[in-house]
Design a protein that fits this description.
The protein is an alpha+beta fold and 455 residues long. It is 38% helix and 19% strand. The chain has an eight-stranded mixed β-sheet. Strands 13-12-14-15-16 form a five-stranded mixed β-sheet, sandwiched between helices. A hairpin with a 5-residue loop joins strand 3 and strand 4. The chain is elongated. The protein starts with a helix and ends with a helix. The N terminus is likely disordered. Bound molecules: adenosine monophosphate (AMP).
Length: 455
């Protein structure tokens, strides 16, 4: 005790403030609103400023779909996990480590779709689409989910737009898809080249895998750890490796085109012939394989011109997947398709300053003054909308001056002014924003008069 007193005396006098001790259990956490909730890693908001790109991309996809005869299909974002495990393949990166899977309240194992082709084939089979005239041409657009390491061009939620042709084995289908994808990118102002390869059918791939294994095993000390793992689990995937140290081994690896059976070779040659005839340039890429198990024969990727040929750079990819319906337990159905990553395309469009249409600007501003006029203005605005006259208004503003300022900023040609007097007289004022000239017209005649003025 004596010691304590001594210490206190040696300090400058401090004004004592009574300290209220709050019992631990009563300490209140700061209100939640003090720090905004955060997005999950790898997910992002697509804000209004970016929407013009999305609108244009979706509209262009729809225009292409209509022109080439593809019908839109929407499948659920969540499916039984087993669908993707069977379709995409147990030993693919997607199934091994990238799926958002969980048990739902009923105890069923479900997954947020990592891609859409499996769902589309499921839908084709479960709705008996093989009974309608073939081929069935479908297109889709929507979010996909993969638990990947987020980086430029790679996120955990991303969007794909894709085209699929089911029920037709002919090489013309593969070529049509390649051509549609190519024209689609051009229409968006994105420069890309198409890389094409054939990975044959399972019968061609087995001897090829053996040759590949032999080549890689002989040079095992020169390859990365991932490739060593791939050799035992999914040997074709070594050809997907982008790590520089593996490239010399990859470049001297056997090529699958040398192992194609006669049927697969003929099929591939026909695809290329059609592309030649259609004047669609392509790059034969002997080491192109796809990361998903269901592909066979033709595979292709769209790589941006001038972009890095890294893992993140493919704008889209596709190929033939004749065995998928069978894998899913349905009747054998030849099919092919491709999908584009929408975020990657938009990033390219922005980089290239591709021209993107804006929404049409309003030509009318409807201003109101007073309670009664405001109520009437809502009805008039709806009439303008229904008549196809693009208008703007700000119903919460009360001052006419403020409303006229907004009209000026929007650059409309005419302002309609509806005040107390006009409401009582059944009229409204049309003000020419350039000349400032105002005229009074009957309320009922306003739409007709505006139509005439706007031509
Ligand atoms: P895939 O389904 O893996 O063949 O991918 C098709 C296209 O989707 C790719 O070429 C990319 O443009 C896009 N894509 C795939 N994964 C992602 C991701 N994690 N983030 C953004 N885009 C992706």
């Amino acid at each position: 005790m004596a010691k304590e007193k001594k210490v206190i005396k040696s300090k400058p006098p401090v004004k004592e403030v009574p300290v209220k001790v709050v019992p631990k259990e009563k300490v209140i956490a700061p209100p939640r609103t003090s720090s905004a909730p955060e997005l999950l890693r790898g997910m992002r908001d697509i804000l209004p400023a970016e929407q013009k790109y999305w609108r244009f991309l979706r509209k262009t996809a729809e225009d292409f779909a209509v022109a080439y005869g593809f019908d839109c299909i929407e499948t659920p974002i969540m499916e039984p996990t087993n669908l993707f495990v069977r379709a995409v393949g147990k030993q693919t990166d997607i199934v091994e480590k990238e799926m958002y899977s969980f048990d739902d309240q009923g105890g069923e194992r479900v997954t947020l779709r990592p891609e859409a082709t499996a769902s589309i084939v499921r839908a084709y089979l479960s709705h008996g689409m093989f009974n309608i005239p073939q081929p069935v041409k479908l297109w889709y657009e929507g979010p996909m989910f993969r638990y990947e390491r987020p980086q430029a061009g790679r996120s955990r939620e991303f969007h794909q737009v894709g085209f699929e042709i089911l029920g037709e084995a002919k090489p013309a289908v593969d070529a049509e898809l390649i051509i549609v994808g190519n024209a689609f990118l051009r229409a968006l102002g994105v420069a890309a080249s198409v890389q094409v390869n054939s990975i044959g059918h399972a019968g061609c791939r087995e001897p090829f895998k053996a040759a590949l294994l032999q080549h890689y095993r002989a040079r095992r000390s020169e390859i990365c750890e991932d490739c060593k793992r791939r050799l035992t689990r999914n040997p074709l995937r070594v050809l997907d490796c982008k790590i520089p140290e593996c490239q010399p081994v990859k470049n001297s690896a056997p090529q699958i085109v040398d192992h194609l059976c006669d049927d697969c070779r003929t099929h591939f040659m026909k695809v290329l012939e059609i592309l030649d005839e259609a004047d669609v340039p392509y790059v034969l890429t002997p080491h192109l394989v796809r990361g998903l198990d269901y592909y066979g024969r033709t595979v292709f990727e769209y790589v941006p011109v001038g972009g890095e040929e890294g893992a993140q750079s493919a704008l889209g990819a596709g190929g033939r997947y004749d065995g998928l319906a069978d894998i899913l337990g349905g009747r054998a159905t030849p099919a092919a398709g491709f999908s584009f990553g929408m975020e990657r395309i938009i990033a390219r469009m922005r980089e290239a300053n591709a021209p993107v249409p804006e929404l049409p600007a309003p030509s009318i501003f409807l201003a109101q003054l007073g309670e009664h006029a405001r109520r009437k203005a809502f009805a008039l605005f709806e009439k303008l909308r229904a008549a196809g006259i693009r208008s703007a208004a700000n119903f919460s503003k009360e001052s006419l001056k403020q409303q006229m300022e907004i009209a000026g900023k929007l650059g409309v040609r005419y302002a309609l002014i509806l005040g107390q007097k006009e409401v009582l007289e059944g009229t409204l004022i049309i003000r020419d924003m350039d000349s400032g000239v105002q005229e009074i017209v009957g309320y009922e005649k306003a739409i007709e008069e505006l139509r005439r003025k706007l031509g």
